[in-house]
Amino acid sequence: SELIRGFLLSGMPCPSSCPPGLLALMAPGLALMATFSLPSQAGDRRALPVEKPPSVKGRTLILLDVNTKSPVRIISENFLSLQLDPSIIHDGWLDFLSSRRLVTLARGLAPAFLRFAGKRTDFLQFHNVKNPAKSRGGPGPDYYLKNYEDDIVRSDIALDKQKGCKIAQHPDIMLELQREKAAQMHLVLLKEQFSNTYSNLTLTARSLDKLYNFADCSGLHLIFALNALRRNPNNSWNSSNALSLLKYSASKKYNISWELGNEPNNYRTLIGRSVNGSQLGKDYIQLRSLLQLIRTYSRANLYGPNIGRPRKNVIALLEGFMKVAGSTVDAVTWQHYYIDGRVAKVTDFLKTRLLDTLSDQIRKIQKVVNTYTPGKKIWLEGVGATSAGGMNNLSDSYAAGFLWLNTLGLLASQGIDVVVRHSFLDHGHNHLVDQNFNPLPDYWLSLLYKRLIGPKVLAIHVAGLQRKPRPGRVIRDKLRIYAHCTSYHNHNYVRGSITLYIINLHRSRKKIKLAGTLRDKIVHQYLLQPYGKDGLHSKSVQLNGQPLAMVDDGTLPELKPRPLRAGRTLVIPPLTMSFYVVKNVNALACRYR
């Protein structure tokens, strides 16, 4: 057919009698990402020629096929994971992690890691005390209302009486008082962040119990980052406080993995003294030795060094670390924020140039890791749309989802094993859940990802029409397409099904025709769009035209697909994100775990 003829590269002619199955055999070069002219993509960037039959005259029709024989990458079952910032101790939200609603929301994203780390990691001190009222810090004695303190204590006593998973039902007035406290503390936390000067935080034994209870009840595996800035006079790590925390956790038989420090490349600005990569590597070896002395953690996983953006000095730190401790850690970690949250605009989230900045970072990290420990797993930790806590109505809006979904697709296609989202709940605006415990757009996007996307990444091939670039100008593609095997945990689909997820940054709709192995299959559509009059700024979303909201504190809504008839062209609305499950493909790559 004329459409199949357009799917073949010039120089590989196909007669008009080509059988449909020939497409899968002759499609040249499988791309991991559907970017027609993305600068990072190697090879010929010329548009693939497609003739215009009369029925599609004046339209852009994109042909899409997937290699179903074998995956190009296999990522962790916990690929999409979560982070909580230690600031929740300061603003009081840690006391509310036992909320049934929060546990329900977190459980929806399991299985996953829960990383407890952030800017205040290296100012965290552990104290093995149980009395919460006497050990809690805050903005001053005049602020706290007696009934608020008493309610916290009564809640703790009630939790202590529960066996197994401990769930609390907090009265509305208690939550209202907490929100007032958090609003005041938010100003304090922002001042610390902008001045890069942080006060010490105390983590009590009871607070650690609450943190672990939340992770355990939600089906998340806790990763705890220890304070690396407790230093001896010779600049080696002082492990005394960490040892106290390790011993307490072991006495409770808590199943925890560990890290040491957060963004060590910034230590000079924090304390006026730097820790080089070699010394940091020695500190990690010291921590590994401590873990091996404690039976509960003798085989615990250790991750690091959680560096910042890989600029020249950061790469030097990573190289020094890998030389000394590359074999000591179970995965190498770094973090990335796309935009300075103080100057972000909604149009920033639509820039393909911004979406592409992560590719260069991945290559830099992989080059160093593969030089010293080939094959070592790499994680992106602490990723968010914006730094500096984010911006209201931007980093917590529908628009931020373009960056988030593209991050997931790009990292998976490049073989990054885990990505940790900052944050599940915190004082800023990069979170998945707001302070009324309502899920934000990126939460629903993450939930869809968890429900539909499996760990096996598939290669795709696209062909379509594209306008000619002006001389000297590179066209960055605004249509991003990724493919995975459908999640094995989703019992609505048989093994062998495939899920596509698509980002359309164009201001016009795009049409996609499934070809080859995907041709004439029934497709289930999950189209996520903003809900309400705020458009891209909206904090609410709709799935296939129906608003998404929790049914009650213990129940997430059913994510209902829209079935499309076999062979129907996919129509992707402008400025949207969508998932498409291609049923009963019987893909060889997807039949077995």
Describe this entry's structure for a reader.
With about 600 residues, the chain is of the alpha/beta class. It has a single domain, classed as Alpha-Beta Barrel (TIM Barrel). The protein is built from 16 helices and 24 strands. Strands 2, 14, 16, 17, 19, 20, 21, 22 and 24 form a nine-stranded antiparallel sheet that branches. Helix 4 (about 100-105) packs across helix 8 and helix 12 (about 310-325) packs parallel to helix 14. It is globular, with a radius of gyration of 25 Å. Residues about 1-60 and about 130-145 have low confidence and may be disordered. It comes from Nyctibius bracteatus (Rufous potoo). This is HPSE2 protein. GO terms for molecular function: hydrolase activity, acting on glycosyl bonds. One of its GO terms (cellular component) is membrane. Pfam families: Glyco_hydro_79n.
Layout of strands and helices, then pairs:
Blueprint: H1 2-7, H2 22-26, E1 61-66, E2 73-74, E3 80-84, H3 87-90, H4 100-107, E4 112-116, E5 124-127, H5 132-135, H6 146-161, H7 172-195, E6 201-204, H8 205-218, E7 220-226, H9 240-251, E8 256-260, H10 267-271, H11 277-293, E9 302-307, H12 312-325, E10 331-334, E11 337-339, H13 352-355, H14 357-372, E12 378-386, H15 401-413, E13 418-422, H16 441-452, E14 453-458, E15 460-464, E16 479-486, E17 498-504, E18 510-514, E19 523-530, E20 541-543, E21 546-547, E22 562-564, E23 570-572, E24 576-582
